């Protein structure tokens, strides 16, 4: 005896495509324009949108249809370039990876620039100090001797040792979620330490001692208070706090 199963039919629009149920969401954006005022202010926008869309889609809709002066960074829109990091409902996230339905769209959705960096306009911050800290830890392979005739080989086990910290996309979500960085912009910050870790533990690299000495500075790894904010904020799932602790351990054990 056979049993027939009827598939649930989704509502269709006039073209026969599945109908999209739109909602009206309120986006409360912290605006700042130094040419207009020295103070930032909040501005609300009502956006009719599919809740399965991303916050970045809503920002595009606001800029293209409601207020062309809204300013924010974005590039690939697929969580690779890291340029659209911002505070959404009080948490650092990538706008291109945050679905509206996942952040309580029945309440106003707050969007503001990441903390600890100078705001240039609206959601755009000055990233130069962040990238300077990144450059300071020498984020490149350092070797001596002649160039090899083929690629520098490495075992899978040696590669796995630093695999986690190769995932960084330099979005600054971790660094700008750090309370120490908020209070003292001289601190290297989690992202710079993560990128130093990536080379310190690379078996092919010979610059580990130099990087450890750089991070042994008063503004280096010892400023970390292990709050795990950075790990929670990382959109790539990097165990940032663990990496910082491993660099601290390397600094201690190298002396014995």
Automatic annotation (TrEMBL):
It comes from the Bacteria. Residues 158-180 form the 4Fe-4S ferredoxin-type domain. Keywords: 2Fe-2S, 3Fe-4S, 4Fe-4S, Iron, Iron-sulfur, Metal-binding, Oxidoreductase, Tricarboxylic acid cycle. Binds 1 [4Fe-4S] cluster. Binds 1 [3Fe-4S] cluster. Its cofactor is [4Fe-4S] cluster; [3Fe-4S] cluster; [2Fe-2S] cluster. It catalyses: a quinone + succinate = fumarate + a quinol. The keyword Oxidoreductase applies. Pathway: Carbohydrate metabolism; tricarboxylic acid cycle. Pfam families: Fer2_3 (PF13085), Fer4_10 (PF13237). Its EC number is 1.3.5.1. Residues 34-117 form the 2Fe-2S ferredoxin-type domain. Belongs to the succinate dehydrogenase/fumarate reductase iron-sulfur protein family. This is Succinate dehydrogenase iron-sulfur subunit. It comes from Streptomyces lycii.
């Amino acid at each position: 005896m056979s049993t027939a199963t009827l598939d649930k039919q989704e509502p269709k629009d006039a073209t026969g495509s599945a109908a999209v149920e739109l909602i009206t969401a309120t986006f409360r954006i912290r605006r700042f324009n130094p040419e207009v005022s020295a103070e930032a202010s909040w501005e609300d926008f009502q956006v009719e949108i599919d809740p399965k869309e991303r916050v970045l889609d809503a920002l595009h809709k606001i800029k293209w249809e409601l207020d062309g002066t809204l300013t924010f960074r974005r590039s690939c829109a697929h969580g690779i370039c890291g340029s659209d990091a911002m505070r959404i409902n009080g948490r650092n996230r990538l706008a291109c990876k945050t679905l509206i339905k996942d952040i309580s769209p029945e309440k106003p959705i707050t969007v503001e620039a990441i903390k600890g960096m100078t705001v240039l306009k609206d959601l755009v911050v000055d990233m130069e100090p962040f990238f300077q800290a990144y450059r300071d830890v020498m984020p490149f392979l350092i070797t001596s001797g002649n160039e090899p005739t083929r690629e520098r080989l490495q075992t899978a086990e040696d590669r796995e040792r630093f695999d986690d910290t190769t995932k960084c996309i330099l979005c600054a979500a971790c660094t700008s979620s750090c309370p120490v960085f908020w209070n003292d912009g001289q601190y290297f910050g989690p992202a710079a330490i993560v990128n130093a870790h990536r080379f310190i533990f690379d078996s092919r690299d010979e610059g580990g001692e130099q990087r450890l000495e750089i991070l042994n500075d008063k503004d280096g790894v010892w400023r970390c208070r292990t709050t795990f904010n950075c790990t929670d904020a990382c959109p790539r799932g990097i165990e940032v706090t663990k990496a910082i602790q491993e660099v601290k351990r390397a600094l201690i054990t190298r002396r014995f």
